[in-house]
Structures are given as C-alpha cells and as structure tokens.
Amino acid sequence: MIHVGKVYKSFGNNTAIDNVSLEIAEGEHVVLLGPSGSGKTTLLRMINGLITPSSGSIRINDADIRERPQNELRRQIGYVLQRNSLFPHYTVEENIAVVPNLLKWEKRATGKKIRELMKKLHLPETYLSRMPDELSGGEAQRVNIARALAADPPILLMDEPFSALDTLTRKSIREEFMQLDEFQRKTVVMVTHDIQEAFELGDTIALLHQGKLVQRGKPLELLYNP
Ligand code: ADP
Ligand code: ADP
Question: Residue 49: CB partners within 8 Å, gap ≥ 6?
C-alpha cells in the first residue's frame, strides 16, 4: 500500500534519510523507532507529501505521491502530531471538521461523524464548543485523533502522538486507542522513540539510525535477532 523506494533526503550538507526502502502492506501497523535526529519525522513527512525526497520514490497504492492532487492525499491520509497542533482559534467541533469541510462533505454527515468520534474517544459532546486552550493535554490529544480520523482515511500517520502526555494519561489513551476499530483496520505508520510504545502498537518495527534503516521486523524478531 505504501512503497518507499531508495529514498534520500538532505538538508544542505546534512543527510537526514540515507537510502531507505520500505514496503508497508494494507492494514499493517509500522512503528518508526530511533533516537532523536535519526530521520523518523523526515521520513513520515515525506510519506505525507509535506517534504519532497532529494531522490527516490514514494508511492501510495502504486501512484507516485508527487502526481497526486493534495485533496486526494488528504482523503487518504490522516495525520496526528503532538498535542499543540489544533487550530487555536477554532472550536473543538471546527477543528474536527477541517478535513470533511475541505472535502465538501454535507454538514449533516460531518456532524454525525463528529458525534460518533466524540463518543468513541470518551469526549463529552459539550466540549464541541470549547476552544483548544480549555482542554487538558489528554483531551486535546483525543481531539487531535478525532480530527485525523474524521474523513475516515485508510492511512493514519502519527508523529509521537502520546509523547507530550504525562505517563498515566499516555498509557490510558494509548490503550483506548488500540481498542478502536479505526486503529485496528487502518494502515498506520507511527513515529516514536519509546520502545515500550513501539512494542505495544507495532506489528512491525523499522529501526532508524543516522538516517539509515538498520532493522525491520516483528517486535520479537528484533529482540532475539539483534
Ligand atoms: P527524528 O524525527 O528522528 O528526531 P528528524 O527527521 O527530525 O529526526 O531529523 C533528521 C535530521 O535532519 C536531523 O539531523 C535534523 O537536524 C535534520 N533536519 C530535519 N528537518 C530539517 C530541516 N527542515 N532543515 C534542516 N535540517 C533538518
Ligand atoms: P491536565 O492536568 O491534564 O493538563 P487541566 O488542569 O488542564 O488538566 O484540566 C483539568 C480539567 O479542567 C479538564 O477536564 C479540562 O477540560 C478542564 N479545563 C481546563 N482549562 C479549562 C478552561 N479554561 N475552561 C474550562 N475547562 C477547562
């Protein structure tokens, strides 16, 4: 479903991604694991079309993402960042509605979907009129997840989605999230530097070091065949 072929990315003289190839199957949950500066975010942003590779190719469902209209990528890909990525001047409801509105969904369908997601993510409906600064860290992150899921994209990209939360909140949101059928049936690529999180959420772990993909395998394979 996602094909990364011999991708390089440099910023000036600094090589952030160094000849990475990766195949991600439909429904697979891949975790990009590695220390700070190893290129995880750069790779994720290239899959999202936000950064263009210096060379190599990225294809989604056999089409090069450079040849795809932005609207089509938005429909295909949901993107979750760390907590502070909600639009501060939009209410919770307006934040979650951003992509459905861009895709010109009917108001009624959008409203229905938003209420369904609020329920699944254990957010009271009364929060729909709140502003992001009236939410706790955990609540804001649930809204971020709802926003990414609103248009039901088949692919979900997540960049350290739980790392800004305190340990207890992180554990409970992560466990809730793993139970969602939205998570289970989507193709997911998640960035983290937290090994425990990687082992819990990933079917496959791709280990990056200094921009190179040094290992790729199931969590237990990595543990026993280092
Ligand atoms: P990670 O997500 O693993 O922490 P990044 O992908 O953010 O790593 O960064 C990989 C390397 O690329 C780092 O050396 C970083 O400094 C560099 N880098 C990332 N983005 C930029 C940018 N926009 N301009 C210059 N260098 C960048
Ligand atoms: P945390 O410790 O997780 O950061 P907060 O202390 O920020 O949590 O928030 C605790 C509760 O108070 C949350 O349910 C949040 O929704 C609510 N809350 C926080 N700020 C406001 C506000 N400005 N207006 C209304 N409710 C708020």
Answer: 58, 65, 66, 68, 70, 73, 77
Query: What's the N-to-C CA distance of the chain in angstroms?
Result: 27
Tokens at residue 47, please? 């899959």
Ligand nearest to the CA of 124: 2
User: Does 14 sit in the ligand 1 pocket, CB within 6 Å?
Assistant: yes
| Nearest one of 103, 99, 77 to 155, comparing CA atoms | 77
With a 6 Å cutoff on the Cβ, whether 192 touches ligand 1 is no
- Angle at CA of residue 25, ends 44 and 16, nearest 5°: 25
The two tokens of residue 112 are: 């229905």
All residue ranges of the chain with pLDDT < 50 are: none
Residue 166 has a pLDDT of 83
Measured CA to CA, the distance from residue 56 to residue 42 in angstroms comes to: 14
96-131: pLDDT as tens digits: 999 999 889 999 999 999 999 999 999 999 999 999
Assembly ipTM: 0.64
